[in-house]
Amino acid sequence: MARYIGPKSRIARKFGEAIFGPDKVLSKKNYPPGQHGNSRRRKTSEYGIQLREKQRAKYTYGVLEKQFRITFDKAARSKGITGEVLLQLLESRLDNIVFRLGIAPTRAAARQLVTHRHITVDGKILNIPSYSVKAGQLIGVREKSKSMEVVSNALEGFNHSKYPWLEWENSNLTGKLLHWPERDDIPENIKEQLIVELYSK
CA geometry: angle at 176 spanning 174 and 179, to 5°? Predict the structure, then answer.
């Protein structure tokens, strides 16, 4: 169950956005990391731009290279626009759904809740963050875990209506994936076509 464990603020500064959630370092140093981060940089090649976009998607969803490639290949074999299907597959990951439902404040925290067996799918405990949630499945918080501070803090004041492809029932802390999101409903700043062009070379 591999995951990125390197310096997160450095990655956030590289892309100029808080990929991993609120970042104090990024707010103070909003320029790329390294000795020459605050100076002029050389023009990035077309390949460099495409590679950067792939890395942005990988870090955003917390997926390493091998798993990302498997997900892309699955998207390429599916019907529809490959780039959009890729994002839909990433959005349907269990850890991402837990994050989108507001059960956890970040995807990393959502992944931890899943691996520590605090999350259920259709009433059964599931500890696989990469599990692909199907439309109609119910995602909930395990009964013993509903009083956890990290869960209650994350849910406090969370606006569940901002994701139209998800449904939330606050009385029993259960959400449902209604359908895969449309591209316009996915808020991530990712140019998926560049990733398709990179893998098509």
Answer: 170
Residues ≥6 apart with Cβ < 8 Å to 20: 8, 11, 12, 59, 106, 107, 108
CA 75 from chain center: how many Å?
Answer: 17
Model-level pTM? 0.81
Is residue 155 within 8 A of residue 50, CB to CB? The reply is no
Total structural domains within the chain:
1
Residue 199 domain-assigned (yes or no)? no
pLDDT 10s digits, 26-54? 455 555 555 544 555 667 788 888 998 99
Domain range enclosing 146: 93-179
Rounded average pLDDT over 108-119: 95
* Domain harbouring 107, CATH code: 3.10.290.10
Instruction: Confirm if 195 and 53 have CB atoms less than 8 A apart.
Output: yes
In the DSSP assignment, the letter for residue 183 is G
Token pair 């076509």 in the structure block, residue: 193
- Residue with the bigger pLDDT between 124 and 39: it is 124
